Amino acid sequence: MTRTAFYVLTALADGPRHGYDIVQEAETLSDGQVKLRIGTLYGVLDRLAAEGIIELDREEAHEGRLRKYYRLTEHGEVALGAEARRMASGAQAATRRLAARRAAREARPTRPEGAADTS
Questions:
Q1: Cβ count near 43 (within 10 Å)
Q2: How far is residue 67's CA from residue 82's CA, in Å, rounded to a whole number?
Q3: Cα separations (Å) of 97 from 85, 106, 109?
Q4: Residue 52 zone, left/alpha/beta (φ > 0; ψ -120 to 50; rest)
Q5: Helix 19-29 × helix 38-50 angle, to 10°
Q6: Inter-residue long-range contacts of 74-80, CB under 8 Å, 24+ positions, other chains counted
Q7: How far apart are alpha carbons 102 and 87 in whole angstroms?
Q8: Structural domains present in the chain
Q9: Which of 30, 33, 55, 90 has the most crowded CB, counting CB atoms within 10 A?
Q10: Among 62, 54, 66, which Cα is nearest to 12's?
């Protein structure tokens, strides 16, 4: 799952949204790191819909334009949950490795100042 798709699905996790709302919510959720253009968004939405991960919830007229609202499907909820667990697992593995690296560095004996490096 792409980072963009992850944030689009996360934006839809609490209920249906229309395109511009998804763009804004994805940017907020990603702390500004995911900035979707409308054309990119609709490509992602089309792909996710084709995969059965999201579906059209409804269409509403707003200021003379038709707004399409999308929602997660049950399959989408499962896919988003699986991706969130995968990402959390990866983050935990990286955190453990970094902690071990710091601990190993701190456990190394320090050389007295001016001592020669014999390695």
A1: 13
A2: 30
A3: 18, 14, 21
A4: left
A5: 100
A6: 75/51, 76/9, 76/12, 76/48, 76/52, 77/13, 79/1, 79/9, 79/53, 80/6, 80/9, 80/10, 80/13
A7: 23
A8: 3-102 (1.10.10.10)
A9: 30
A10: 54
- 0.90 surpassed by pTM: no
User: What is the per-residue pLDDT for 114?
Assistant: 64
What would the two tokens of residue 16 be?
């249906």
Q: How far apart are CA 50 and CA 75, in angstroms?
A: 12
Structural element, H or E, at residue 71? strand 65-72
Task: Going from the first residue of the chain to its last (119 residues), give the mean pLDDT of each consecutive group of 10, the final group possibly shorter.
Answer: 96 96 96 93 96 96 92 97 96 94 86 63
* The pLDDT value given to residue 109: 77
Helices (H) and strands (E) in the chain, counts: 4, 3
